[in-house]
Amino acid sequence: MNLRKILLAAAGLGIMILNASAQTSKRYTVAKPGTLVEMLTEDEANEITHLVLQGKLNAIDFRHLRDEFKKLQILDISNASISMYAGKNGTHPDRFYIYPANCIPSYAFCKQLSDSTFIGKTSLTQVILSDKTKNIEDGAFKGCTNLKICRIRKKTPPNLLPEALADSVTAIFIPLGSSDSYRRGKRWETFAFIEGEPVGATVQIATMGSLASELIRAGIQPKDVNFLTVEGKMDEADFTLIRNYMPNLVSVDLSKCNATVIPDYTFTQKKYLLNITLPHALKSIGQRAFSGCGRLCGTLELPPGVTAIEYGAFMGCDNLRYVLATGDKITTLGDNLFGNGKDKLTYRKE
To answer: Where is the secretion signal located (predicted)?
Structure first.
């Protein structure tokens, strides 16, 4: 075969898991709220990466999920109920707090270290919430800087309290037909909503131009792909596919492909795109290659071999903090890179 693929699409907890030996999946039914920690040892908890919980939970269980379970990446509580709890052993920094039923507790995955310092659970990459969820309480996922996917089974938006989610890094997947309802929800207006289940594809290409055919052969429509990793050989046809037929990309990793150029307009108006890792061999970025990617966030690191960035390459990327040049070879720098008069291009000093 010209292409070897590792493809896990819309498969619940299996999505985007490329190294099966590195994951530990467990499923528990918690009969009595607050007793999750009694069902396993501390060592067992700290090895779990993928966890499905059913039954009844409360804020005590969330405190253990936050403070133990050191490797927890994916948490599915879509078939669990959350009981009311009033007491001192929950997640809120206050000693005594009342936690309402069927609400993700305040500071569920964010721990206070001092009066002004909080730290989120950085191992967490995906959560799946029940259709019974009423609120996502204040600070619930504050500081969870690697939370890329929040899947909500509810057709109407839960109440979103202050600092409950980091909208610049989290993609929200919701039931089909519910986008309009979420867009009207208070504090939800800045999020991008993707209807349906997350779809991820990792492909290794030996023959250039075959990305489209191999996705179709695997039963995946390019328009459905949210998380894309491409390794091997890419050409203009592959980038054209990305530009014209993959509107729902959230995360892209091209670090192990051979491309030396990101062609003009490749990622223009990818409104869901949160992050991208560029090819190691990259030399140039075409004009308006990322223009209109308003949710592209954080710092985009350029490979050291980049020599040219063309006109308007990052125009409209308002959430992008910096474009970091790691080499000293840039000789062509187009006008109006960012389109807002702000110089976000910076260089790493060795």
So the answer is: 1-22
Residue 319 tokens read as 């959430």
Q: How far is CA 15 from CA 73, 105, 197, 299, in A?
A: 12, 26, 10, 25
Contact 54, 27 (CB under 8 A): yes
Concatenate the DSSP letters of all residues of 130-153 into one string. Answer: -TT--EE-TTTTTT-TT--EEEE-
Choose among 224, 57, 85, 75: nearest CA to 148.
Answer: 75
Cα pseudo-dihedral 326, 262, 268, 209, rounded to 10: -140
Two structure tokens written together for 327: 């080499």
Q: How many domains does the chain have?
A: 3
Backbone φ and ψ for 245, nearest 5 degrees, come out as -130, 10
- CATH number of 74's domain: 3.80.10.10
Of 195, 212, 228, which marks where a domain is finished?
195
CA distance 269 to 288: 10
In DSSP terms, 111 is beta-bridged to: 119
User: What phi and psi, each to the nearest 5 degrees, are found at residue 182?
Assistant: -70, -40
- Strand 110-112 and strand 118-120: pairing? antiparallel
> Rounded to two decimals, what is the model's pTM?
0.86
The alpha-helical segments, DSSP class H, found in the chain are 42-45, 59-67, 179-183, 211-217, 236-245
Tokens 């985007």 correspond to: 16
Sign of CA dihedral 246, 189, 106, 93: positive
Q: Which structural domain range is residue 159 located in?
A: 19-195
Residue 166 shares a structural domain with residue 273:
no
Do residues 236 and 138 both lie within one domain? no
Residue pointed to by tokens 């062609």:
263
Handedness of CA 301, 173, 76, 109 (dihedral sign): positive
What are the mean pLDDT values of the chain's consecutive 10-residue runs (350 residues total)? 35 35 89 97 96 98 98 98 98 95 98 91 97 97 94 97 87 96 92 93 90 90 96 95 97 97 98 96 97 93 96 94 92 88 76
